[in-house]
Amino acid sequence: MTVKSSVSLTDEQHAFARALVEAGRYASVSAVLQQGVDLLRQRMDAEEVETAALRALLAHRREGAFVSAEEMDARLKAMIADKRRAHGLPT
């Protein structure tokens, strides 16, 4: 179903939409706006998914064991030394 709606565009936005129509990329200014709304919805949906994933990751990390900065430094140095040895580089 299509709903008729009145929207206001700046001169620049309208010129851009008209240029897309005149270039044959869209059938009408309405089609340009519909595509824009669809893209905005997709972006917002993706942001919601990303935010939920980040929240889940943070919650999981909060439940894990705490590692001090000193311990993390020691782990990183050991990992780097292992990689250097694996590639025949001096440690």
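The above is record 1. Record 2 follows with the same two-line structure.
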Amino acid sequence: MKKKELYGRVMEYFQREMPEAETELHYEDPFQLLVAVILSAQCTDRRVNMVTPRLFEDYPTAEAMALATPETIYEYVRSVSYPNSKARHLVEMAKMLLSDYQGSVPDTLEQLIKLPGVGRKTANVVQSVAFGKSAMAVDTHVFRVAHRIGLVPRSCTTPYAVERELVKHIPQALIPRAHHWLILHGRYVCQARRSKCEECGLLGTCRQKL
């Protein structure tokens, strides 16, 4: 199967099966999304959604969070992974938003990755979800699924390599949704330890089943 045909078949499948795919993180504005995505690193969205309501109630804006201490924020996020470093990053990030961006979350990769606690994946999630940009964030789910169903060659051994390959072949208008399609497929069907192949409509392209 040629690559163009493969991508067309996969995109058609996801459009049919998950037409309204979106992030499972709970947020009300770009700042809250940024906070939630920082907290979600190596942590489940479910856990993040358990801690953010109280955090956002007391610190709903960059202005409010910049006045907090890492020790204070830690008490809100202590049940997520790496709470000490994430609490410190959140306070430092809020302060930088005030000092460099007038309290608003920037919408470019170059600006976002300057913020404490924000790497390329986090920046791409914010660009895509908050601002509708055609950015492809590659987490462990996207990385795994893209390889298993053959969207990227085995030579793509880094998240950045996978990102470049996916962006090159997925229609630009579909990239924001494709990010969620691949994540949700990996989270609920094409799981790392035990894939639910009986529920998958992409077995014909799956390298594990060919």
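Residues 145 and 186 are 6 Å apart (CA to CA).
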